[in-house]
Specification:
The complex is a heterodimer.
Chain A (H helix, E strand, L loop, with lengths): L29 H4 L5 H13 L3 H7 L4 H15 L2 E4 L15 E2 L4 E5 L5 E5 L2 H11 L12 E4 L15 H14 L3 H10 L25 H13 L11 H12 L5 H4 L3 E10 L6 E6 L10 E5 L12 H4 L7 H6 L6 H10 L6 H14 L3 H12 L17 H19 L4
Parallel strand pairs in A: 2-5
Antiparallel strand pairs in A: 1-5, 3-4, 6-7, 7-8
Chain B lengths: L3 E5 L5 E5 H4 L3 H10 L5 E2 L5 H16 L20 H7 L3 H14 L2 H15 L4 H8 L7 H18 L1
Parallel strand pairs in B: 1-3
Antiparallel strand pairs in B: 1-2
The chains are: A mainly alpha, B mainly alpha.
Keywords (chain B): Ubl conjugation pathway
Pathway (chain B): Protein modification; protein ubiquitination
Organism (chain B): Euplotes crassus
C-alpha cells in the first residue's frame, strides 16, 4: 500500500484511517492533517464532490476503492430515489434553523398493558426524538418540535393541472388542525401524566422512567396525538385506512438517507393525501412546499406499490416534459426518476418491504451505538477544535454533526439494501 | 466605515479584515453575533496562508457573485463553467486545494466549498479508474470478489442508462 494506507474500511467503518506523519495528497486523507476533527468531515466533503458527477462517473468511481464505492452508492441512491422533507417550518414553537434536522427512525417494540396483553407497536417519533437526543447530546438543547427528514424510496412525481388540485381543502384542514393543536410541551405533559408501565424490549439505552409509562385508557389516543403534533405526519394517520400500509412503507425508508439534499426537497410530507387506493398500490398527492426557490404551489402525484417497489407512471406523458419537473429537481437531476428508466429500475427495486432491514439494521445500529462514550468521542472530536464560547452554541458545520453520525446508520442500511436488493 | 474584525489563525497570527467580508462565513458570523466584533476570533483549524486565500475569495465574491455551479458538471474544464478568476483561484496544488476545502467546510462558506469541490470533481471527471487512483494516490482495496459484486450490482444502473 502507499504511504497513506486505508485501514479497516468496511461498512461499519466508513472513515479512512491514516498512519500519522505520512504524506498523502487526497481529499479523503484530510484526517491526516486534522486527525482530531476531519475524519468525520470526509464523507460530507466527498458527497459534495460526488454531487458533480453523473451516473456514469459514479459507476466508474465505485470501482476506485471501497470508500468511493460507498459514497458513490449513496449518491446513486440520491439520484434514483425521490426524497422528501418536512422542515416543520409551521411548528410555532420551532426556532431551529434548516440545519437542525431530526431523523426519524422506526422500529418495533413490545408494549405490555395492565391487562397483561402484549402487542407489537411501531415506535413513534416521540421516542425516536428522545432516543436521538440520547445518542447525540448536541440535540438535547433543542426544542422538541424539530424539522424532520423523511424519504420516499422510488417515488415518482408528475405534475397535475392546478385546477384539478384539491389542495385548497387539504391545506385548510391541516391549518385548522394545527391551530387547534395544543402546545407540544402540553401534549407531552399530558402524555406523561397518563402513564402506565411500558415494557420496551430490545432497548439498551437508559431513558427517563416517565417516558416508560403509558396510560392504558388514553395511551393510544394521546400517543398518536403527540406523534402527529410533533411530526405533522398526517400521512401516517390511521384515519387514512389502507393508506397506512403504504405510509408504513414511507416510514420504512425514511431513515435510510440523510443528506443536505433533503433540505432542498421541494415537497412537504405533511401535505400529503392518498388520492386513490388501488390494488396495485395507493396513489399519494403531495404538495410542493413554498420556498425561496419557488413560491408557487404545485401538486405532484406519487405512486407506490404495496411492496415498496417502483411502479410505472400513471400518466407518463405528462411527465415527459422537463418543464413539468420541479425546479430544484430539474436543476439537480437528483429527485426525479425519469419515466423512461422506471421499468428498468423497478426490476431492481427490493421485492420485499425494507421492513426487514429496518428492524435489523436500524435497531442494531441504535443498540450498538448508544454508548455515551462513543457519543462523547464523536462530538468531542469537533468540540476540541471549536473556538472558545462555542461549546454551548449551535452547530457551525455546513453539515450537522448528527447528520454525520446518522450517516453511519443510514449508510449501513443503504449498503444492506444495495447488497441484498432482492431480499 | 466598516467594522474591523480580528481573526486569529492556526499559527496565532492576527489578520484584520472588515466585518462585511467575513460575514460570508456562517461560523464567523455566528461568533460575531454571539460575542460581538470586539473579541478576537480564533480559527485554530485554518492556517494563515489558507485564511488569506479564503479572505481573498470572500472579497472577490462580494464584487463578483458566483453563480451556482451546475450539477452534474457539463465539462471537465472548470473554465467552461465559471468565470476565469474563480477557475484561477482553485487552480492550485492538490494539497492547497484540499486545505481550502477543509477551511471552507470549517468556516461554513458554501460558495467556496462548492467551488473547491467542483474543482476536485473536474480532476476526476472523464478519467479512468486507474487514472483516478494515480491522480489521488489511492490504493485499490477492493478484492476481486467485491469488484465482481459491484459490477453485478451496477448492472441495473447500466441497463437503466442504456
Amino acid at each position: 500500500m502507499n504511504d497513506g494506507q486505508m485501514l479497516g474500511i468496511g461498512h461499519e467503518d466508513l472513515f479512512m484511517k491514516f498512519p500519522p506523519g505520512k504524506p498523502f495528497i487526497a481529499p479523503w486523507s484530510i484526517s491526516q492533517w486534522h486527525p482530531n476533527n476531519m475524519e468525520i468531515k470526509i464523507i460530507p466533503v466527498l458527497l459534495i464532490i460526488f454531487d458533480y458527477f453523473d451516473m456514469e462517473d459514479l459507476d466508474k468511481l465505485s470501482h476506485v476503492c471501497k470508500l468511493f464505492c460507498n459514497v458513490a452508492t449513496m449518491d446513486c441512491l440520491y439520484q434514483k430515489f425521490e426524497v422528501m422533507v418536512d422542515t416543520g417550518s409551521d411548528i410555532s414553537s420551532s426556532s431551529s434553523s434548516n440545519n437542525d434536522i431530526t431523523y426519524h427512525f422506526i422500529d418495533e417494540e413490545k408494549v405490555q398493558f395492565k391487562n397483561g396483553k402484549i402487542r407489537s407497536e411501531r415506535k413513534t417519533s416521540i421516542k425516536i426524538i428522545e432516543e436521538l437526543d440520547t445518542l447525540n447530546p448536541a440535540i438535547n438543547t433543542r426544542q422538541p418540535a424539530k424539522p424532520r427528514v423523511s424519504v420516499i424510496k422510488g417515488a415518482v412525481f408528475q405534475g397535475i393541472p392546478e385546477e384539478e388540485s384539491e389542495w385548497g381543502d387539504i391545506q385548510s384542514e391541516a391549518e385548522e388542525e394545527h391551530a387547534k393543536s395544543k402546545n407540544i410541551q402540553d401534549i407531552l405533559n399530558e402524555f406523561r401524566e397518563g402513564a402506565e408501565i411500558r415494557t420496551i424490549e430490545k432497548r439498551q439505552n437508559n431513558r427517563p422512567s416517565e417516558f416508560a409509562r403509558l396510560d392504558s385508557m388514553n395511551s393510544k389516543k394521546i400517543f398518536k396525538q403527540c406523534s402527529d403534533r410533533l411530526n405533522h405526519t398526517h400521512v401516517f394517520s390511521e384515519a387514512m385506512g389502507d393508506a397506512y400500509t403504504d405510509s408504513q412503507h414511507i416510514n420504512d425508508v425514511m431513515m435510510t438517507i440523510g443528506s443536505r439534499e433533503l433540505a432542498c426537497s421541494p415537497y412537504n410530507i405533511d401535505k400529503v393525501r392518498m388520492k386513490q387506493n388501488h390494488k396495485e398500490g395507493s396513489i399519494y398527492q403531495f404538495q410542493k412546499k413554498e420556498s425561496s426557490i419557488s413560491t408557487t404551489t404545485d401538486n405532484y402525484m406519487h405512486k407506490t406499490d404495496r411492496e415498496g417497489s417502483i411502479l410505472s407512471l400513471r400518466r407518463p406523458s405528462s411527465y415527459a416534459s422537463s418543464n413539468k419537473m420541479p425546479k430544484v429537481a430539474r436543476k439537480r437531476n437528483t429527485f426525479i426518476i425519469r419515466p423512461d428508466l422506471l421499468n428498468k429500475i423497478s426490476k431492481l427495486a427490493p421485492k420485499k418491504s425494507v421492513n426487514s432491514f429496518r428492524k435489523e439494521s436500524t435497531l442494531q445500529s441504535i443498540q450498538e451505538h448508544p454508548s455515551e462514550d462513543k457519543i462523547g468521542d464523536f462530538s468531542g472530536a469537533s468540540q476540541n477544535l471549536k473556538p472558545k464560547n462555542f461549546l454551548k452554541q449551535k452547530r457551525y458545520s455546513v453539515y450537522p454533526m448528527d447528520r454525520n453520525k446518522l450517516g453511519q446508520f443510514n449508510h449501513l442500511n443503504l449498503l444492506q439494501m444495495i447488497q441484498n436488493p432482492r431480499r | 466605515m466598516s467594522t474591523m474584525v480580528k481573526l486569529i489563525s492556526q499559527e496565532g497570527e492576527i489578520i484584520e479584515v472588515d466585518q462585511e467580508t467575513v460575514m460570508l462565513s456562517v461560523l464567523i458570523k455566528s461568533m460575531i453575533d454571539d460575542s460581538g466584533t470586539e473579541e478576537d476570533i480564533p480559527l485554530p483549524n485554518v492556517s494563515k496562508s489558507i485564511l488569506e486565500k479564503v479572505l481573498e475569495f470572500c472579497k472577490h465574491i462580494k464584487e463578483h457573485p458566483l453563480q451556482e455551479i451546475e450539477k452534474p458538471l457539463k465539462s471537465a474544464n472548470l473554465r467552461d463553467i465559471i468565470p476565469e478568476w474563480y477557475d484561477d483561484f482553485v487552480d492550485v496544488e492538490q494539497e492547497t486545494l484540499f486545505e481550502v476545502i477543509l477551511a471552507a467546510n470549517y468556516l461554513d462558506i458554501k460558495p467556496l466549498l462548492e467551488l473547491a469541490c467542483a474543482k476536485v470533481a473536474t480532476m476526476v471527471k472523464g478519467k479512468s479508474v486507474l487514472d483516478v487512483r494515480k491522480t489521488f494516490n489511492i490504493e485499490n482495496d477492493l478484492t476481486p470478489e467485491e469488484e465482481a459484486q459491484i459490477l453485478e450490482e451496477n448492472k441495473w444502473a447500466e441497463e437503466a442508462i442504456q
